[in-house]
């Protein structure tokens, strides 16, 4: 039986952690773009669109991420599209992220005083112009800290994609455990690597929040 | 070729689904009670003014909040036996959920405690109340009332997160889904139905927690 040093284990976990990072960044960017669209629908003047987007958000906030991943994973083949664990993971995490970000940003948009809406409306601005020039620039300032904070949830969410067989940090941990029979060490290191990814973001989010409060 | 859905194939296994729902609900209830209790104790420790206690609980909170629940679960189920602590699936699942919710609720409840007006505590002190009495009668109740909505959301998140406990073969709702789809080869239908069940559970849990909050906190506030 081959021997594995702690360094071997850590080295391979770090290699796998790259995929956690890539998946997180991709899901965050795609989810951010989709989330912006959901947000626009959620605060639009059209009642049916608002209701639909609210339903979308409720649906993703009321079901487990694992189920969302499974449904995406098994729905693609039904539509005749070949899928891999990688695509299913990206699509599912994008949808998940978009719903949460849209809800976070909605709170930020609603924190913009009503007078700003009314003033821009009295200048005959359309909804898109209002959002583009008046509301979003002001909401953005408030939105940064919770958005950074949510990125931690995205990184932790990628761990669930290991269940459909996507090889990222957690899956690599399971595979290495099966080879080395050292679960305590391996999962300890896996946890440590996640912590190394997430903790700086948590601290950064907290600091942003503090400076924002001081600026007010 | 168009796919033809077969939902009755799922409902042939209704007893399995019911068992899954019951276990998920049981996991949630137990971990909520224990997790929130830890949260109250943790928040008390963090605001106690004892530096060592504050730091120790702070490390616990940050470690849990910055690692995935799935990894915590694997560490408890697969890792702890190395230290001689061998837990059966459902105990490991409960422990992981309690530890997880404990950390989040510590942070949430602490925010509520820190929002207590200074004057209230001083009023308690001037009545010669002990620190424990002040905490019990003055600080914790309004704090819990204030943060109850945030805590409720966190409890729902933990309930939904319990779906990954299927990975250590705790026989909750997702485990039931995996079992059924391995029998009837209808993964999409099975997961669709089970997702709907989770949604129902989440809505129900949110409603129950809101009712509970109204019942416990509103009445006490009225009496005071």
Question: Your description of this structure?
Answer:
- The complex is a heterodimer of chains A (216) and B (224).
- Chain A is built from eight helices and no strands.
- Chain A has 216 residues and is mainly alpha-helical.
- In chain A, helix 3 crosses helix 4 and helix 7 runs antiparallel to helix 8.
- Chain A is flat and about 75 Å long.
- Chain B has one domain: MetI-like fold, CATH 1.10.3720.10.
- Chain B is 79% helix and 0% strand.
- Chains A and B meet through helix 3, helix 6, helix 7 and helix 8 of A and helix 3, helix 4, helix 7 and helix 9 of B.
- Chain A: It comes from Azospirillum oleiclasticum.
- Chain A: It is a multi-pass membrane protein.
- Chain A: This is Amino acid ABC transporter permease.
- Chain A: Belongs to the binding-protein-dependent transport system permease family. HisMQ subfamily.
List keywords for this structure.
heterodimer; A: 216 residues; mainly alpha; MetI-like fold; 0% strand; B: 224 residues; MetI-like (chain A); membrane (chain A)
């Amino acid at each position: 039986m081959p021997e594995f040093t702690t360094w071997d284990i850590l080295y391979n976990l770090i290699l796998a952690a790259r995929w956690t990072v890539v998946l997180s960044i991709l899901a965050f960017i795609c989810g951010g773009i989709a989330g912006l669209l959901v947000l626009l629908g959620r605060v639009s003047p059209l009642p049916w669109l608002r209701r639909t987007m609210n339903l979308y958000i409720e649906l993703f906030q009321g079901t487990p991420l694992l189920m969302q991943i499974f449904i995406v994973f098994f729905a693609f083949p039904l539509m005749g599209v070949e899928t891999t664990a990688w695509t299913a993971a990206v699509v599912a995490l994008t949808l998940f992220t978009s719903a949460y970000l849209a809800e976070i940003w909605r709170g930020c948009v609603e924190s913009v005083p009503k007078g700003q809406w009314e003033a821009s409306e009295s200048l005959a601005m359309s909804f898109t112009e209002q959002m583009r020039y008046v509301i979003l620039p002001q909401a953005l300032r408030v939105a940064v800290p919770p958005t950074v904070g949510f990125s931690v949830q995205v990184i932790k969410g990628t761990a669930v994609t290991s269940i459909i067989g996507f090889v990222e940090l957690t899956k690599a941990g399971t595979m290495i455990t099966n080879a080395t029979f050292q679960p305590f060490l391996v999962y300890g290191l896996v946890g440590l690597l996640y912590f190394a990814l997430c903790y700086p973001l948590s601290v950064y989010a907290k600091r942003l929040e503090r400076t924002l409060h001081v600026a007010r | 070729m168009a796919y033809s859905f077969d939902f009755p194939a799922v409902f042939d296994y209704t007893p399995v689904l019911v068992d899954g729902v019951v276990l998920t609900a049981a996991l949630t209830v137990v971990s909520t009670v224990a997790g929130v209790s830890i949260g109250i104790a943790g928040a008390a420790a963090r605001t106690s003014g004892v530096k060592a206690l504050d730091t120790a609980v702070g490390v616990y909170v940050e470690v849990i909040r910055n690692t995935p629940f799935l990894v915590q679960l694997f560490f408890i189920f697969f890792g702890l036996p190395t230290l001689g602590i061998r837990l059966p699936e459902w105990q490991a699942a409960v422990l992981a959920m309690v530890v997880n919710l404990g950390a989040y609720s510590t942070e949430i409840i602490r925010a509520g405690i820190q929002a207590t007006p200074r004057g209230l505590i001083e009023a308690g002190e001037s009545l010669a109340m002990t620190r424990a009495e002040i905490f019990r009668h003055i600080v914790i109740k309004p704090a819990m009332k204030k943060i109850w909505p945030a805590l409720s959301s966190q409890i729902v998140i933990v309930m939904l997160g319990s779906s990954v406990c299927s990975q250590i073969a705790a026989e909750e709702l997702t485990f039931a889904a995996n079992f059924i789809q391995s029998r009837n080869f209808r993964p999409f239908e099975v997961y669709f139905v089970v997702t709907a069940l989770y949604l129902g559970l989440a809505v129900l849990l949110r409603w129950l927690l809101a009712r509970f909050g109204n019942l416990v906190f509103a009445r006490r506030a009225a009496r005071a």
